[in-house]
Queue: 4 jobs
Job 1
Amino acid sequence: MQQRSLKDRVEEMEREEIKKALRHCRGVKARAARELGITERMIRYKIKKYGIKRKEVERI
């Protein structure tokens, strides 16, 4: 079994934290960015980079 690189593990953790913040902020990117301590521009970039879809963060 091949282990994932540190970069891959960090990116997965970052992706999950962004999704969690978006859920908590009901999809409002500006609020989620503030919660994470990053800019709105950065959260938009990372959402695109990680392919985070609206359905992934909607509350059921």
Job 2
Amino acid sequence: MMLTFFDTNVLVYLFDTDSPEKANRARAVFGEAVEEGRFVISTQVLQEFFVTVTRKLAVPLSVVDAEEAVRGFAELSVTPVDVPQVLAAIGRSRTMQISFWDALIIEAALSVGATRLLTEDLQHGCRFDGLRIENPFL
């Protein structure tokens, strides 16, 4: 099965009332991936999601609503971030000139065998060891 790894920004758009077009697109790709059993995220994504939706949205979610969303995502497929991934991300960020956090997302996606990474943060169409970067909002 071809897994699709979701970066934090795609999940945040599910709750962003200031970006209705992106919210609609995020709902479509999220719904499709969940329905087909291809959705996967990491514990890093859960952490970043909680902070972003409670502090950085124009209309932030309450802590209770954000926790409910995190619990909902956690019922799907979540992979933990481990020390080997952190070390690999340090190396990838250094050699590829990308942020550590983006490199850690890539390492988590690769660790579960994902073939797609949906994100706004990396160049659309790039490949990292069999993982294709896709910006669902283009």
Job 3
Amino acid sequence: MEVHSTRSSPTVPRRVAVIHGYSASPDDHWFRWLSDQLESTGVPFEVPALPDPRNPDPGAWKDALRRTVGVPDAGTAVVAHSLGCLATLRHLKTLEETEELKGRSGSWRLGSLILVAGFIDRLPALPELDDFIGVGEDVTGLADHIDRTVVLRSDDDPLVPPALTDRLAVQLGVRARVVPGGGHFLSSDGFRTFPGVLGVLGGVPGAPDGSDDADG
């Protein structure tokens, strides 16, 4: 399936942040594998352990994203999974709102944003996250700051309805890429590795071409 992104030619990332989701850690699912791949290629990366992932607090996660992602530039790539996508988008929206208040709109950029099983709406399967999700997030305007956005979803995610990921993708100005049978991209779904994510990062030495295959 064709990948639709805000730019067609990704640049080599100078740093990568990998943001895990609910009830996860940097060692879970495909995150450790991706860390190992980035380390072997010499690309600087950070995979923060977000606080209390089984009972996440929006403010605490926001602080963690501020420390990890900070103010990105065209050499920054962020890979986020599930609830980590919402946390990442909230951080980026805060940057946009701060710039508007200071009259400096357009001064930050993000080279690549890769969202896996992302959403901004409440999830029927996970009502315990309702307080964290709240009314969701208005992502209007974020696409203007991001050089390349790739959204990945499966066709059988039991936790995040595919329609919600599609809705997020449309709001970011792209079309979601579908990985058949990917579930929620957990280790229990067979995703202890995820070459497709490395591929769509683009420009990472030794990365596979992610244009056609995002399977784990």
Job 4
Amino acid sequence: MSSTDKIENWPGRRIAFKSFATDLARRRAELGITDADIPRNSGTRRTASKKALLKAIKDAGGNW
């Protein structure tokens, strides 16, 4: 690990993921937002390789 990778060298704001996730879940619940309310990516700008990957997943029985 280089010295630039160490946490103590990070100049930006630090946010603990666990507390962020808890706060986000609380705020969504207060507003009545569910995962069904959040739109998925439309896919209008997908590359050919990404389209091929998603097709292969679908053909294998997956649903991405």
